[in-house]
Amino acid sequence: MIDIRFGSQVCGELTGGATREWLVPDGLGGYAMGTVSGLRTRRYHGLLVVAGHTPASRNVGLVSLDPAVVLPSGARLRLGAHEWSSGDVDPRGFELLERFDLTDGLPRWRWRIGDVVIERELAMAYGRSCVAVVHRLVSGGPVRLDLSAACTWRDAHVERRADGPEDRVEPVDGGAVVEGAFRLAGPDWTPEGQWWLGVHHREEAARGLHPDDDVWHAGRFSGALERPGDTVSVLAWAGDLAATPPPAEEVVAAARRRNRQVVARAEPADAVEATLALAADAFVVRTAAGPDVVAGYPWFGAWSRDTMTSYEGLFLCANRADEGRELLRAYAATLSEGMLANTADTGRVEYNTVDAALWFLHAVSRHVTVTGDTDLGDELLPALRGIVDAYLAGTRYGIAVDPADGLVTQGGTPGTALTWMDARVYGVPVTPRTGKPVEINALWVNGLAGLAELTELAGGDAAELWRLHARATASFAARFPSPVGWLHDVVDAPAPAYPLGGAPFHDDDLLRPNQLLAWSLPYAPLEPDEPTLRRVAAGLLTPLGPRSLAPDQPGYTGRHRGGPAERDGGYHQGTVWPWLLGPYVDAARRAKLPVDDLFVGVEAHLTEHGLGSVSETADGAAPHAATGCPFQAWSVAEVLRARRVRR
Fold first, then answer.
1. What are the pLDDT digits (tens) for 329-340?
2. Is the N end or the C end of the chain the one with fewer CB atoms within 10 Å?
3. What gap in Å lies between CA 69 and CA 110, rounded to an integer?
4. Is residue 647 predicted with pLDDT exceeding 70?
5. What angle do CA 357, 347, 52 make, to 5 degrees?
6. Which intervals of the chain are annotated as region Disordered (predicted)?
7. What is the rounded distance in angstroms from the CA atom of residue 321 to the CA atom of residue 328?
8. 164: which DSSP letter?
């Protein structure tokens, strides 16, 4: 894997250290997460964040485990870091960091106090909500190490205030149980019981959200580090509190072995692919219903559109086809009226996308093509045919195939945003894209061809599917090319001066990246030509992928910043989306354009934000600072997939 390592120049300076984040997932949707400097900058940061009945319903438990080293002289040096609502940063333990590294996906810090060097490693037990934190004396000593446990038990999306009840901390052998929800275990536990008021999260402040939190100092562990190699370790776990995990050192060693196995199974061609393969593993989780995909950390859960868009990169490129098969079968069972269930982060099951089912068609087709698993294709054929039949007959939200041209139209209901550009501000879609969106119809053409091939593999008659495909392809070629030199983003869209569904209609020729799917999918409706693709690249391409709108287009927003309304308003109005690098690379390859240099920026990004991973979004304007989730499934999946195609 790529070398991710920082010295004191980054670790000891908050601008650098606190904007680089690490993630250690537990395989269930929970995680440990923080920054290189140790400063918690988000409400979502913590050492034990526990997934609930869905991956998105997470609770923060162990907030931090603050080290303090007591020297033989009696001097006590605090190695933790907190920012307070007053603006103070205290303690400032990051100023004693001499190195941070991410090795085999596990973070490691190294503090130096003169000749005393103390190292911290952290890992989670895969498949269990359990974190292990190991502190080791590297040189110097003897010293004593105190570890103060700051705790809470709250929804990860909200802060907590001290005007409510105190945390219920019950002593047990070797530690304590907090709120009956999670257990702490380590050496020489001493209860404390004190509120830490006004812990400040600078990233939440920047997002226009309430930034301050109160946490409960439950107590501290303490142990002696007398000679190099001695350790002081703490475990924290949820679930079955009576089932003691293995020793912390074993948890760390097991996590390291597993991460190496994940990388080896993916058979990476180079260090970047190895890094992306391990990053991809974070998003594949096991729930009570089977494998699923977390769309992004720290705040997203499972979303069917993201899951199916990510499918090839996360499962097929990582040699996880068996898990993928199980996932595809489970998602097929959620189909209703030709639409794939979209499990919202609120826990509700909704049917509110026009594209998730079409991406599902694509995912099954790719699975069978790549693996030769025709048994799965045969099994899912009736469900896939049901999608096509439902679109032909018409389904929810006015989604239907227009009998006049064989193309898919959508959005006949006010206030809906059914494509991946689904942001709303105060309930009003920013980009409703009512009519016939370009990428929806590219997916429709692609899906018809993929289903026809699966039908023929099963020995069925695909003549009608090929007829539908030919008609939609011809209509696509006639309708979507625009006089401005690229493809329309939407055709037959209601004119802005008329109410939704009114007339006359117009064809939207804003320069957006959705058209890339018209050239990039396996059964794409068009072949790309170099001049058109170069025009698209000139307006959209950045080091981290294509913008969602070109800078010279009406409504362009170059910064994805501010409060929720400002961020949602710019989400698809110029913000960069790294996942779109995959379709762009595929289209460029088909146009016989060079592609290797397209990965340079995103490869450098692996050490800049969410360490070893790819962010959800970035500013459209230079320097294209990352925004959104630091760890995003389809960003990682599409970069990994596009790189591996080079083989």
1. 999 999 999 999
2. C
3. 13
4. no
5. 120
6. 547-568
7. 10
8. S
